[in-house]
Each structure stands twice: as structure tokens, then as C-alpha cells.
Amino acid sequence: MHTLTITVQGTNCIHFVRKIILAGTGPRGGSGVSLAEKIINLKFLKSLSHLNNIKSYLFFTKIPDEKIITTTYLKQIQSRMSNRDKKATLSVYLRQLKAINDWSKAKPMDLSTITNPTLIVDGAYDIMVPTVNSYALNQEIKNSTLIIYSDAGHGSIFQHFERFSKSVIEFLN
After folding, report:
1. Any idea what DSSP says for residue 144?
2. d(CA 90, CA 106)
């Protein structure tokens, strides 16, 4: 969950941004986001007890064939040999949880001022940032297009990377 603020010498420069893509996110103070810390901690404990990657519990659903998609994704990210992301430390984990918690409690912004074409993408089963927030973004950002993958979770852009890539290229063109 990131706030897009572009400044040049103290001036807000959102007009330099031509188009916006938002995936698996919601408005500040969004519905159900305050539960994210509890959900993430429970999934973290489950991943430790089952010796599974936490991403398999947070990003993916348990629908048929999902195990294949999850395994393929996790193998793919492990296959990268150079320029890999550093493993998150406990300190990073705790700071991320604090940021999510702060975001969930913050006063909502007026998103109706965003006039840029915006593509909003999410999975119907997003447990980290409940999908209802994508619908809220779509309602508040007037020039937006919403794509909800009916069989996906928070990791919808990984689960449907081919469809997502085509949608992004179409949107940006």
C-alpha cells in the first residue's frame, strides 16, 4: 500500500503521471484493512508450522489448480540467480505491519480529484486488502477501469500474469 506523491522542488506534480495502475490495494482507511495485521501474523505462524512460504497463504487462494499456480510462482521467483531481493528481516516485517496499521486507521483522502486514467486490478478473494476496496477505488476515481479476477487472491497479478500483462499493455496504449 503506497501513496503516490510526486514532488519536484516542493510542488505536487501528479500531472507528470499519464496513467496509474493500482493492484491489490485500496483507499487509505479502507474497509477491513485494519484486520490485515492479524491475518498476516496468523498466516505467518501457519507458514512456519507447515514449513511453507508465507506467500502461498497470503497471495493465493485454495481453489482447484491453485496449488500448481502457487508452486510454479514460488519456483519462478526462486530461480532468479542475480539481483534478488533481500530476505525481509523481522525489523522490516514489523515496520510493514505498522505501515499497514497506520494506513488502515488514517483519514480517507478525496480520490475524486484523480483524473488520470487508472487501471485497478485485484482478486475476488484478497484477504490482505479486501476486494471491496478495489470497488471503492473504482467508485471514487471517475476515470478508472476495474478488473477483478474471480479465482484469485491478493496475488492476482501473479496468478494471471498473462491476462494482466495484456490488460496493462492495452491500458497503456
Report:
1. E
2. 24
Q: What is the pLDDT of residues 69-95, one digit of tens each?
A: 777 777 777 777 788 778 878 898 889
Is 59 strand, coil or helix?
Answer: coil
**Do 137 and 22 contact (CB within 8 A), yes or no?**
yes
Q: Residue 61: which region, alpha, beta or left (left: phi > 0; alpha: psi -120 to 50)?
A: beta
Q: What is the dihedral of CA 159, 66, 46, 39, to 10 degrees?
A: 50
Q: What rounded mean pLDDT belongs to the chain?
A: 84
Q: Distance between CA 6 and CA 94 in Å, rounded?
A: 26
43 contacts: CB under 8 Å, gap ≥ 6:
54, 57, 58
Q: How far apart are CA 38 and CA 50, in angstroms?
A: 18
**How many residues does this entry show for the chain?**
173
Task: Kindly write down the DSSP assignment for every residue of 139-173, as one continuous string.
Answer: HHSTTEEEEEETT--TTHHHHTHHHHHHHHHHHH-
Could you say which DSSP state residue 61 is in?
Answer: -
pLDDT at 48: 79
What pLDDT digit, counting tens, does each position of 34-56 carry? 888 888 888 888 887 877 777 77
Task: Report pTM.
Answer: 0.79
From first CA to last CA, the distance across the chain in angstroms is 25
Query: Could you identify the residue written with the cell 470497488?
Result: 135
- Paired strand residues for 136: none
